[in-house]
Design goal:
Elements lengths: L9 E4 L6 H5 L7 E6 L2 E6 L4 E2 L6 E2 L3 E4 H4 E5 L2 H7 L8 E4 L4 E2 L2 E2 L5 E3 L1 H6 L4 E2 L4 E4 L8 E3 L6 E3 L3 E6 L5 H9 L1 H10 L10 H5 L2 E4 L2 H40 L6 H10 L1
Parallel strand pairs: 1-2, 8-15
Antiparallel strand pairs: 2-3, 4-5, 6-17, 7-16, 8-11, 9-10, 12-15, 13-14, 13-16
Length: 269
């Protein structure tokens, strides 16, 4: 029974308690109270209260805001691209385009570069660690990426930058915007044309909800561990597929024979 509860989420009480709400008020970590009564352990759960928000019910202590309230949103201006941008093979800064952002990861198989001097002339569209990028036009509208390094990238056309304020963690916001809750809003807000698109005003109107910074950290930590496990399993799967492919080629060309296995099988009958 006890293995179902995290040690940070449980308080053990060895006597009868009538007013459980007082115990829950002692710490936000206390989500369950285990009470021993006549040798029998009973569980009392914290009652989570919810409130209405534009996206439905959320925990009472969470906040619901528009992105404009918790972050700054910008893009590469048309005049910046026309007057300053010149793609150069010897450029030190990678200009991130929509095709470079896939599944919350950087895809740098096809890149364009600009000179560092040009990037420094356009600080508003520079990209720094902690910035969140979002594609705002085309088939892959709403692809999200959290930048982890400064002085390496710059915005290119069709990619916007979201820079969070202290009230919300960029790691949490990236997860939220990548979720079905965020994607559903992109679909509702995007312009209904042959080529879907989002304006900066529409991005600023996206509604997000979030808990305290401490809980944001914890949510991010849990999901990051899951992401790491998925990545390890995917690499292991790829390795097994390579081994299998090599074995298929060896077996079907006779480089590896199975006659001895057949003989062993007959001998065992």
């Amino acid at each position: 029974m006890l293995e179902d509860y995290h040690y940070e989420d449980t308080i053990f009480i060895g006597f009868d308690i009538e007013n459980f709400e007082d115990i829950f008020k002692l710490s936000e970590k206390v989500n369950f109270i285990l009470v021993s009564r006549n040798g029998e352990i009973k569980v009392k759960s914290r009652v989570r209260r919810f409130k209405d928000s534009p996206l439905g019910g959320i925990p009472e202590e969470w906040e619901a805001r528009q992105i404009a309230d918790v972050a700054n949103v910008t893009k590469l201006a048309g005049f910046e691209f026309t007057n300053y941008f010149r793609y150069r093979d010897d450029g030190e800064i990678i200009a991130l385009r929509a095709l470079n952002i896939k599944n919350r990861k950087l895809d740098l198989t096809d890149i364009q570069r600009i000179k560092k001097k040009v990037s420094e002339q356009l600080p508003r569209s520079q990209v720094n660690a902690g910035d969140i990028l979002i594609t705002y036009i085309g088939a892959y509208i709403g692809d999200i990426l959290l930048i982890k390094e400064s002085n390496k990238y710059h915005l290119a056309p069709n990619v916007a930058k979201i820079t969070t304020k202290s009230i919300i963690l960029p790691e949490f916001l990236e997860i939220f915007l990548s979720s079905y809750i965020g994607k559903r809003q992109y679909k509702q807000l995007s312009t209904l044309t042959a080529t879907p698109s989002l304006t900066m005003t529409q991005i600023r109107k996206i509604i997000i909800f979030f808990p305290t910074e401490k809980e944001q950290h914890r949510i991010f930590s849990i999901l990051s561990q899951i992401d790491e496990t998925i990545e390890k399993e995917q690499k292991y799967k790829q390795k097994l597929e390579q081994i299998k492919q090599g074995l298929i080629e060896d077996l079907l060309t006779g480089k590896v024979r199975v006659n001895h296995l057949i003989k062993e099988g007959v001998a065992s009958v």
